[in-house]
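Researcher: I'm comparing several assemblies side by side, and this is the next one on my list. It has 487 residues spread over two chains. Same procedure as the others: predict the full complex and return the structure.
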Amino acid sequence: MSKRADARLGGRTVVVTGAGQGVGEGIARACAAEGANVVIAARRAETGDPVAAAIRDDGGEAVCIVTDVTRRDAMAACVDETVRRYGALEIMVHNAYRGASPHRLEDVDLELWERNSRTAVWGSYYSAVLAYPHLEVAGSRGRLILVTSPSGVEGSVNIPIYSPVKAAQRAMTKSLSREWGPKGITVNCIAPVAASPSLVDAFRQNPVLEERVASRTSLRRIGDPERDIGSVAVFLASDDGGYVTGQTLVCDGGSFMGL
Amino acid sequence: MGTALAGTRVVVTGADAEPGRGLQEALREAGADVVGATDPSYETRGDAEVALAGAVERLAGHPLDAVVHSAMPAIAFEAVDFADVDDERWEAVWEGVMRSTLFVLQAAYGQLKERGGAILLITPTVAMSGAARLVPYTTAVEGQRLLAKSAARQWGPDGIRINCLAPAPEHFPIGVDSMTVSLAPPALGGPGDVVRDLGPVAAWLVSDAAHFVTGVTVCADGGVWMAP
């Protein structure tokens, strides 16, 4: 990866949570390829460090900051360290999520609820509120991108509690886009279907699922985290996406079309 | 008094404030036996179970047919710059609303699973459109709406339907009017009256006439929000 003069995110700094794997890693790599300084905010150094190293090996700029998105102090430290290192934070991408496993809604206990709520929704809240002072400085280059899911629109029969926490992110996106729009900041969601480790794992446990998911897509394939999803994040993060805000971009190969 | 809901037993949470109060009145006018829940804060599943069991007692022990969940903590309606939303507020609004809704749904499931029935959540259109300074509230209401969709998908085989009724923002103390939701004025002239205009929609959604309708959001806002 060489420093191109036409790199769309040249000189900008992006934090991607949950970037140690899957969609987060894909978004981080795609942003790095467009010249961004990338902070891999990963829960574990074992996953985050290799992603940052791989980006640097390709000629990009990246660092891993071990971050627990469910804790305010940890997210604050991540944001502070990012700005100390790179001088600014223009783009905050919250992708981290943990907690999906099949369940019955009538059996959901506080432990399962919390796991979903903390990573998806509290993580979004901390990402947004702690990045805000820096996004405000960035003005029309300020971006908040939340990674949600088509399940957040459709509801889910297998993992019912996943849908409300993903819907919450979409609602935050709409209200925040209205609140922060006058500052020039855009706020959007990406709803991907991509070959993340969790989905690949689900396919391994249930081989019929992969065929079912793929055959439901118009394009008959599962998205690639960097090429198919990362490219959409780059568009939203770049000046090209500067007039798109409050939206959910569904990147699922043409499956859900209900918006 | 109508008869569309004759013999239908409904409990309404949040019946001490609009729009719950008006919906309770409308359901009663449609012939239902309605009781307002003596709302606890629904901090635990047990709170919700006790509240619904109390309602059944007041219905002379007859089983419930429908639950209308309209309770909302007052703090949820407060407009605040997002930058000033602290953990305590996020906890009270997002966690408070979602946990109480989850617990009410679970308690309702316990009451309805043997005979089937209907659950109705009240989710104003402003949550779908978004609104500045109302991030916690709109986030929580959209969470409720998707909880309803997931519940509808899982509990359909049990004969339980879950839908959402979306009134105009004027029916809630949030200082937002319909023109915030859409540039176009209400096609039917205004946000309507809870008893006269929203009531019949709520009555229909909990009645057997809507037996094939589940997981949907019905906007009864005078013709403002028309997405999708």
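Model: For your comparison table: The domain at 13-251 of chain A is CATH 3.40.50.720 (Rossmann fold).
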